[in-house]
Amino acid sequence: MKKTSARLADGREIVYYDTHDAAGRDAVDRRPIEAVATSSEIRHDPLLDEWIAVTAHRQARTYHPPPDECPLCPSRNGRLTEIPAEDYEVAVFENRFPSLVGPPGPADAADPGGLFLNAPGAGRCEVVCFTSDHDASFADLTEERAALVLAAWTDRTAELSARPGVRQVFCFENRGREIGVTLGHPHGQIYAYPFVTPRTERMLRTVAAHRERTGRNLFDDLLAAERADGRRVVLDGEHWTAFVPHAARWPYEVHLHPRRRVPDLTELDDAARAEFPGIYLELLRRFDRIFGPGEPPTPYISGWHQAPLGPRGGEDWAERGDFALHLELFTIRRTSGKLKYLAGSESGMGVFVNDVPPEAAAERLREVASE
Fold first, then answer.
1. Which of the four, 9, 160, 291, 298, has the lowest number of CB atoms within 10 Å?
2. CA distance 218 to 215
3. Dihedral (Cα; 287, 289, 294, 295), 10-degree rounding
4. Is residue 307 within 8 Å of residue 320, measured between CB atoms?
5. How far apart are CA 33 and CA 44, in angstroms?
6. From the CA atom positions of the chain, what is the Rg in Å?
7. Is the pTM of this model over 0.90?
8. Number of separate helices (H) and strands (E) present in the chain
């Protein structure tokens, strides 16, 4: 992998990832743009013990531009974009409208009782462009390109994890208008959070309780149980297993685990890295065939769940070694032409109601395997 770092006109970093040396990585961003003034802060919810980000500046972000004005395409034929090069393989740059940005800072109480805690919305948000082809999708990539994306995710995880104040790194892709994507170009994002996310906090609590109760690792036991049961296994490679979880929340939801438990992407071995592109591309291609021929591309969210970093309350996370890196992929489409909405029970109480039995979802994902 060849990595080249440069700066955009407003000072943001852009990093090119190539399978070999490529021309144009020294292209200069000639746009007359200034840095966007950000106003990100995080606020603590005392009832749920969770942080949320408040980001008024993101109201002005780019919203569904026509294809010939896409800011994620390369700069060609006199049209200047976020990516100065005339072509690229994989490019990563700082988001112009980030949810989290800047160095960490102390939390301050906005009330005498100390219930209304505010802190800087510290961290970093990056955009990952998987290909220069505006009309492609991740599922269209070659295995070589998917391996390069994995290398970029891994490199960014390592770099962002070393930044002051970063507690967790989340690499993810939102795909489709139904998900809320505002740019059609095939891309994902990376968030470097200044706190441990609520979902991970909850996982760590259950993992710790399982360890205390049984002396074993919950992720290891869960993966072994799914493989032994078999009804919900979608793909079972030498180094990766993909399954629909027993209590899936979404109509079609797949969890992809490396067979050897590791805390984050940086710890994957060469064998797992080599097998990943074929496994993952097959999963994405099956997702596009779930609802039959002639259907529009399946909207989905795909994200890497990685172990948190650093101290918590002055103590290191003893559970980091117990956490298992895994990818979660799901769609909000429940059947042809119909979406799964997070209505009263889901949004109001956090109780999901799934119309598709997980065993049926797994069976369908096996039926649409590539020939």
1. 9
2. 9
3. -30
4. yes
5. 34
6. 21
7. yes
8. 6, 19
Structure tokens at 293: 């021929």
Q: What angle do CA 135, 140, 142 make, to 5 degrees?
A: 130
| DSSP secondary structure of 84-140 | -SS--SEEEEE-SS-SS-B-----EESSTTS-SEEEE--BEEEEEE--S-TT--GGG
301-329 burial: b if 16+ Cβ within 10 Å, else e: bbbbbbbbbeebeeeebebeebbbbbbbb
Query: 7 - beta bridge partners?
Result: 13
- 205: region left, alpha or beta (phi > 0 left; psi from -120 to 50 alpha): alpha
Return the residue matching tokens 């939801």. 253
> Which residues is 305 bridged to in the sheet?
326
Are the C-beta atoms of 193 and 165 separated by less than 8 Å?
no
Residue 310 has a pLDDT of 73
Length of the chain: 371
Predicted confidence (pLDDT) per residue in 56-73, tens digit: 888 777 788 998 999 999
The continuous run of DSSP H or E covering 174 comes out as: strand 168-175
Which residues face 192 on adjacent strands?
124, 169
- Whether 76 and 114 have beta carbons less than 8 Å apart is answered as no
Report how far apart the first and last C-alpha atoms of the chain are (Å, whole number): 31
Q: In whole numbers, what is the pLDDT of the chain averaged over residues?
A: 94
Question: Which residues carry out catalysis?
Answer: 187
154 backbone dihedrals φ, ψ, rounded to 5°: -65, -45
